[in-house]
Write a structure and sequence with these properties.
This protein is of the alpha+beta class. The protein is built from 25 helices and 22 strands.
């Protein structure tokens, strides 16, 4: 029983191939029968070859004709084959029946080859589906229990053992491991992850067991969003394909009218005999059909989408793959895009009486009670040092924070705030602070005062040192900007809501010459509009809610996949899954390469059609040769499109 089941499954999965094989065998035996003069057997075998090889094309062609009231190239092939057979029966030149059967056979083989070629792209895209397991190991009352992924709830704690796939996005509660994120983000090297860091569904756990808390619904995980968007991209035709589709509908009608004229006028105009006239008209129907032209675009774009997904670049549809290759200007958001988006301690300078560690420990003792990002950055920088949290902590918003640490009052804040407690600020520190502020860094002063300093009142504190806080520029930002310039991008600008000093500091570090600072979301939108008036195709790269209007307005919106807000991810056309800016240049190269391949395919398709039409008119080709040329060009451009998979 198992063998018939496998045979049935093979037949269903490779229906086009089976049909082509049967058609070929029946054609071969029919040709032998005709050669031996067994007309009865030949007239039994050859019609069967027509039916088996041409059934699917006839069904699709007739469906298009009756439901959409449009002519289809599949139907033209069948008409040409039946016409050749009818002509052969009428003139008793039975080799024409063989010609018609060869037409159907080659058309069937071509359909099978195109199916396999497209299936390769499909498999590359659908491989995303296998990146997440169906179940997760959940901790319930201290016991492990496997449940389906779709039953996971927010707050559930799951266990992932070494060598297992992460089932859903989550935050590590305990454990330490190296995760292979190549399938999701395109990063070639494993990434070290520990407590408090986010992990993504579909990434492969390395050597350590992890306990992970679910912090978003399974269907909202990064990999699920990728799958949904790639599925959507497959169903949406880009503008170039829509144009070709519209062109085909009109072109098919022109072919039919021209075919009728070619089948009737030559005997009166040039004295052709009717057999030659009808035969060449049928050949014309075959060679003039735009099958290769129809296959010139979508296989290429789908291959590009699959290639991008493997490298951590998510194109939401084929239109964006086309557009990214035409970009002439790019606008970058600053915070979270050109920079990491998390402030860090950049430098510490102490007065001679204290060490840098003393300054950090004292600041951390009081900032441990703060929720401010600057306070968190200081505490993180002092993580390996030995310090005790302060008491009686009081924060003054926008200025600083005070408290008691080891029986001393500690003051941490900006220059104006510190001057309330300190009579004179050290001149050497003033110069350093001025230099930092010009570079766009935030400066925090640290001072301490012994309790009961009494006689000096509130201005008896002494300065310990200063701490520079800055949002770290992404290490790959400068190289990315340089690469984009080499690719010929005419204008690269930075858009930010931050102040002028900080904006110009970051722009100088990454190599951007034009800066727009202190912008509101609507201001960013207006800048994009002005750039579009000058450069037409403009890309915007951002990550926050305030970038969403500009991302939507831009010809191509590019969002940071990890740090990006949900609004930015939904609005953008392209998502960089690992927040790696250098992938923008890769995406642009893919876009330009796809344009080049599409143009090459269109030239090849049109050239084949013109050569075959000329050969047919001059009488230098017969029907089988016309079919081979026509179908060969179709397979050629389809395979050419698959080059983007590499």
């Amino acid at each position: 029983m198992l063998y018939p089941q496998r045979l049935g499954q093979f037949t269903r999965e490779h229906a086009d191939t089976v049909a082509a094989l049967l058609c070929g065998l029946l054609l071969l035996f029919g040709w032998f029968a005709l050669h031996l003069g067994w007309l009865g057997l030949a007239f039994l075998l050859l019609p069967a070859a027509y039916v088996i090889g041409g059934y699917e094309s006839a069904r699709e062609g007739l469906t298009t004709l009756f439901k959409e009231k449009e002519l289809d190239v599949d139907l033209l092939m069948i008409v040409a084959a039946i016409g050749a057979a009818s002509l052969g029966l009428w003139r008793r030149e039975y080799h024409l029946i063989i010609d018609g059967a060869i037409l159907i056979l080659i058309f069937a083989i071509s359909s099978a080859l195109e199916g396999y070629a497209m299936a390769r792209t499909e498999r590359s895209i659908r491989s995303l589906m296998s990146l997440t397991p169906d179940t997760a190991r959940v901790l319930l009352q201290g016991r492990e229990e496997e449940i389906p992924i779709n039953q996971l709830k927010l707050g559930d704690e799951i266990v992932v053992k070494p060598g297992e796939l992460i089932p859903t996005d989550g935050i590590i509660l305990s454990g330490y491991s190296a995760l292979n994120q190549a399938a999701i983000t395109g990063e070639s090297l494993p990434v070290e992850k520990t407590v408090g860091e986010e992990v993504f569904a579909g990434t492969l756990n390395g050597y350590g067991a992890l306990q992970i808390q679910v912090h978003k619904p399974a269907q909202s995980s990064l990999i699920q969003r990728v799958i949904r968007l790639v599925e959507q991209a497959q169903t949406e035709a880009p503008p170039s394909q829509e144009f070709i589709d519209r062109f085909e509908k009109g072109y098919a009608k022109v072919i039919v009218v021209a075919g009728i004229l070619l089948a009737t006028l030559p005997p009166f105009l040039w004295g052709w005999d009717w057999e030659t006239t009808i035969y060449r008209a049928l050949t014309f129907l075959v060679v003039a059909s735009p099958c290769a032209l129809m296959a010139a675009i979508m296989p290429t774009l789908l291959s590009g989408i699959a290639n991008g997904a493997r490298q951590g670049i998510l194109f939401k549809n084929g239109a964006q793959l086309e557009k990214i290759g035409k970009v002439r200007a790019i606008a970058f958001d600053k915070t979270g895009t050109l920079t990491i988006g998390q402030v860090q301690v950049f430098q510490v300078v102490s007065v001679s009486k204290y060490t840098n560690d003393d300054v950090l420990k004292t600041a951390a003792s009081i900032e441990a009670s703060s929720e401010h990002p600057i306070g968190k950055a200081i505490v993180q920088a002092a993580g390996d040092l030995d310090w005790i949290a302060a008491m009686q902590v009081q924060a003054i918003p926008g200025q600083g924070i005070v408290g008691i640490a080891q029986e001393q009052q500690v003051i941490v804040g900006n220059t104006i705030f510190l001057q309330k407690y300190v009579t004179n600020l050290p001149e050497e520190l003033r110069e350093i602070v001025q230099s930092w502020e010009q570079e766009g860094k935030t400066v925090v002063w640290v001072a301490q005062e012994r309790r009961g300093a009494g006689e000096q009142g509130s201005r008896g504190a002494e300065v310990m040192g200063v701490i520079a806080i800055a949002d770290e520029v992404r290490v790959e930002a400068a190289a990315t900007i340089s690469r984009l310039k080499k690719l010929g991008v005419e204008q690269i600008v930075m858009l930010t809501g931050d102040n002028e000093e900080t904006a110009h500091s970051v722009a100088k570090a990454v190599g951007i010459d034009r800066v727009y600072a202190q912008l509101l979301p609507e201001d960013k939108l207006n800048v994009i509009r002005r750039l579009q008036q000058q450069y037409q195709t403009v890309a915007m790269v951002g990550d926050g809610i305030n970038d969403a209007p500009a991302l939507a307005q831009a010809s191509v919106g590019i969002a940071m996949g990890v740090s990006g807000s949900d609004v930015a991810l939904e609005t953008a056309d392209i998502v960089l899954m690992a927040d790696r800016l250098e992938k923008i240049a890769v995406a642009m190269h893919l876009g330009r390469r796809s344009q080049l391949i599409v143009k090459q395919n269109i030239v090849v398709a049109l050239s084949f059609i013109m050569l075959l039409l000329i050969g047919n008119f001059l009488g230098n080709i017969n029907l089988p040769i016309g079919v081979i040329g026509h179908e060969g060009s179709t397979v050629l451009v389809t395979l050419s499109g698959l080059r983007l998979l590499k």
